[in-house]
Amino acid sequence: MANVSVLNMEGKEVGKIDLNDAVFGVDVNEHLVHLAVVQYLANNRQGTQKAKTRSEVSGGGRKPWRQKGTGHARQGSTRSPQWTGGGVVFAPVPRDYSFKMNKKEKQAALKSALTDKVESGNIVVLDELKFDEIKTKKFAEVMANINVDRKALVVLADNDQNVVLSARNFAQAKTMQANLLNVYDIVNAKTLVLTKDAVSKIEEVYA
């Protein structure tokens, strides 16, 4: 069972917390992590790419010259793919790139991503993260106090608007609720910052 220091918003250690091995201490399955990231990106694709086939390009209804006797190769339309202005062969059409993963695979991938952050030491646990007002400067000060100066994912137990809006204009961090956690954002972040309440909620859902 991993034992991690708990820091306050000033960056001082105020205790320790034991992380549940069922969530933060599993065998890392790199294949499932990769699959989860690919799924996240694929599901976000709009799939609106479109080009016209020869049947959709305007014009070309008349045969450009007679079949025989001209010396040219026979042609039926000026909108065939080999013509300038013609249609595209096997043209891309709007499509859905999304695909599904099994529920157990998703959970295993998420646990693997969390475990990797613990094993690499890129995890910070805060006793709490609360502001009396919306202030980006205060959020930046907290991040500086806990030595987080690169891409961070800050996970909250609930939707605390003061924290969320304070972090919105802070380029190096992204906030997220514990119940909306996903593999892509965990992997994409350099440091994972969790509140104690968020840790409890994650363990409650996934343990």
UniProtKB/TrEMBL annotation:
Record's function text: One of the primary rRNA binding proteins, this protein initially binds near the 5'-end of the 23S rRNA. It is important during the early stages of 50S assembly. It makes multiple contacts with different domains of the 23S rRNA in the assembled 50S subunit and ribosome. Forms part of the polypeptide exit tunnel.
Species of the source: Butyrivibrio fibrisolvens DSM 3071
Family under the similarity heading: Belongs to the universal ribosomal protein uL4 family.
Protein name as annotated: Large ribosomal subunit protein uL4
GO-annotated molecular function: rRNA binding; structural constituent of ribosome
Record carries keyword rRNA-binding: yes
Keyword set, alphabetical order: Ribonucleoprotein, Ribosomal protein, RNA-binding, rRNA-binding
GO cellular component, one term: ribonucleoprotein complex
Subunit and interaction comment: Part of the 50S ribosomal subunit.
Record's signal peptide: none
Any single biological process term in GO: translation
Region: Disordered, residue numbers: 47-85
PANTHER family: 50S RIBOSOMAL PROTEIN L4 (PTHR10746), LARGE RIBOSOMAL SUBUNIT PROTEIN UL4M (PTHR10746:SF6)
InterPro entries, sorted: Ribosomal_uL4 (IPR002136), Ribosomal_uL4-like (IPR013005), Ribosomal_uL4_dom_sf (IPR023574)
Pfam (any one): Ribosomal_L4
